[in-house]
Design brief:
Helix content: 40-55%
Shape: elongated
Distance between the termini: 89 Å
Largest sheet: 3 strands, antiparallel
Order of helices and strands: HHHHHHEEHEHHEEEEE
CATH architecture of the largest domain: Roll
Number of helices: 9
Number of domains: 2
């Protein structure tokens, strides 16, 4: 019995001696994250991000400024330019001009600026509005009221009919079929949110309802026209 106790104590002591501190584990994960980003292995980078985030949360650790740079690189890859911009600005604020990735960060800022200036994209037969969705519009969508590119169904139709963009004024609210086609080509879009978008198609047996398309999974369903969803206008290429 005494031998068992001694062996258990030795095992416990060995574990405690070789257990890495949270700071060292953080450095280990950050190094793995660095290598993953450098190799453009974003799948592996996401695994390291989760490890770093969990470790920091449990141990209340402050993450280095370069974490935000890596995060921005991941968001750029995912075409989430809004979040990329937030993270690259955090990195620059913390690291300043002496930061390791200062020059690369300025390049990223220029890339983001150019991407967010885009106002349209084109598919084979359509020209699509592709303007940024503002923070106020995101709040309107979340809280359920009309503002800008967030409208009820009639407001969405009116918004598109009055839109003047890229020298054109013949924009309109797309049909369900057109929106579904755009969803299949959504990789072309810069400004996109995983949310519901109004179509102009009315439900066949419920004229108070209209179809909407989800841009996270492509599913369609019809809802009462009084709901507030996102608007993305289109026009026919001529």
């Amino acid at each position: 019995m005494k031998k068992i106790v001694v062996v258990s104590l030795l095992i416990g002591l060995s574990v405690s001696l070789f257990a890495l501190s949270p700071k060292i584990k953080k450095d280990q994960y950050m190094q793995g994250l660095d290598k993953s980003i450098e190799a453009k292995d974003y799948k592996q980078a996401k695994i390291y991000f989760k490890k770093v985030d969990d470790l920091a949360k449990i141990n209340n650790l402050k993450l280095p400024s370069v974490y935000n740079y890596f995060k921005a690189k991941l968001y750029i890859e995912e075409k989430n330019y809004r979040e990329a911009n937030v993270n690259i600005e955090k990195y620059l604020d913390e690291a300043g001009s002496k930061g390791k990735y200062y020059t690369q960060s300025l390049d990223i800022l220029n890339e983001i600026e150019q991407k967010l200036k885009l106002t349209y994209v084109q598919t084979s037969n359509q020209m699509w509005q592709d303007e940024i969705y503002t923070e106020k519009e995101i709040t309107a969508y979340d809280d359920g009221y009309a503002y800008g590119k967030v409208q009820d169904w009639q407001g969405a139709k009116n918004y598109c009919s009055k839109l003047k963009l890229e020298g054109y004024s013949d924009w309109y609210l797309p049909t369900k079929v057109q929106l579904k086609t755009l969803f299949k080509n959504k990789a072309q879009l810069v400004n996109i949110l995983p949310a519901r978008y109004w179509s102009s198609s009315i439900a066949a047996f419920e004229t108070t309802d209209a179809w909407r398309v989800r841009f996270d999974d492509g599913n369609t369903n019809y809802y009462n026209k009084s709901y507030f969803y996102y608007v993305r206008c289109t026009r026919d290429k001529k």
